[in-house]
TrEMBL record:
Spans through the membrane: 7-32, 52-75, 139-158, 170-188
Start and end residues of each VTT domain: 32-159
Subcellular location(s) per record: Cell membrane
Lipid bilayer topology: Multi-pass membrane protein
Compositionally biased spans, kind Low complexity: 209-221
Domain of life of the native organism: Bacteria
Similarity comment: Belongs to the DedA family.
Signal peptide: none
Name under which the protein is recorded: DedA family protein
Region entry Disordered, spans: 200-227
Keyword set, alphabetical order: Cell membrane, Membrane, Transmembrane, Transmembrane helix
Length: 227
C-alpha cells in the first residue's frame, strides 16, 4: 500500500518547495494544483510518522512562493510582452491572461495578494506586474503577505484536518487523491494540447485551395494598419 515514506522519497519537502517556486518563478508549475498539494502536505504532516514537521512547511513554502514571485517579476520586467507570446503562455491559455488583466484593472497592486489564492492566475500575475513596471517595493510587500497567508495557511488547515481520527484512518486514500489531483490535470492538459495541435494543420488536399485565395482579401487589414 502507498505510504507516507514513499511520497517523501519520491517528492519530499524539496519537491514541494520546487513546485511552489516554479509555479510563479519559471511559469511551468501551473500544471500542478498548488492548493491541493499544500493541503495534502499539511494532512501528511499530522501523520504518524509525519511527512515533515509542520513548521518546515509553514516557513519553507512562503519563502519559495515569494522567491518565485520575484523571479517572475524579473522575467516580466526584462522580457516584457514577449512572454505573452511565448509557448508557455500558450500552454497556460488566453483565459488566464485575460482574467489576470481584469484583476489588475479592478484591484491594482492588491491583485498580487489576491492572486495567490487563484490557480493559474498566480502564475501570470508576477509577469504582468513586472512588464507593467509596478513599483517593486509594493509588489514585494503584497507578494510577501499573499505568500505567507497562502503558503502557511493552507498547510495549517490540512494539518488540523489531519488530526481528525477519521482522516488518520484513511490517510492513504487522502494521499492518493492528492497525488491524483496533481497528475490527472497534467495529463488532461497534455492531451488537449496534443489534440489541438493535431487539428491545427489543414489536410494536404486543402492547402492548395487556401493558397489560391486572392491577395485582395488581406488588403483592407493592411490599409487599416497604415492608417
Amino acid at each position: 500500500m502507498f505510504d507516507v515514506h514513499m511520497l517523501l522519497t519520491t517528492f519530499g519537502l524539496a519537491g514541494i518547495l520546487g513546485i511552489v517556486f516554479m509555479e510563479t518563478g519559471l511559469l511551468i508549475g501551473f500544471i500542478f494544483p498548488g492548493d491541493t498539494l499544500l493541503f495534502t502536505a499539511g494532512i501528511m504532516a499530522a501523520a504518524d510518522p509525519p511527512f515533515t514537521p509542520l513548521w518546515t512547511l509553514m516557513v519553507g513554502i512562503p519563502i519559495a512562493a515569494a522567491l518565485g514571485d520575484q523571479l517572475g517579476f524579473f522575467i516580466g520586467r526584462k522580457a516584457g510582452p514577449r512572454i505573452l507570446r511565448s509557448r508557455v503562455m500558450r500552454w497556460i491559455g488566453p483565459e488566464a491572461v485575460e482574467k489576470t488583466d481584469r484583476f489588475f484593472d479592478k484591484y491594482g497592486v492588491v491583485t498580487v495578494l489576491f492572486a495567490r489564492f487563484i490557480g493559474v492566475v498566480r502564475t501570470v500575475t508576477p509577469v504582468f506586474a513586472g512588464f507593467s513596471h509596478m513599483n517593486h517595493r509594493a509588489f514585494t510587500l503584497y507578494s510577501a503577505l499573499g505568500s505567507t497567508l497562502w503558503g502557511a495557511g493552507i498547510p495549517f488547515l490540512g494539518y488540523m484536518l489531519g488530526g481528525v481520527p477519521f482522516v488518520q484512518e484513511f490517510l492513504h486514500w487522502f494521499i492518493i487523491a492528492g497525488l491524483a489531483t496533481v497528475f490527472v490535470p497534467m495529463a488532461i492538459k497534455i492531451i488537449r494540447l496534443w489534440w489541438k495541435n493535431r487539428g491545427a494543420a489543414p489536410p494536404e488536399d486543402e492547402a492548395p485551395e487556401a493558397a489560391a485565395e486572392p491577395e485582395a482579401a488581406t488588403e483592407p487589414a493592411t490599409s487599416d494598419v497604415v492608417k
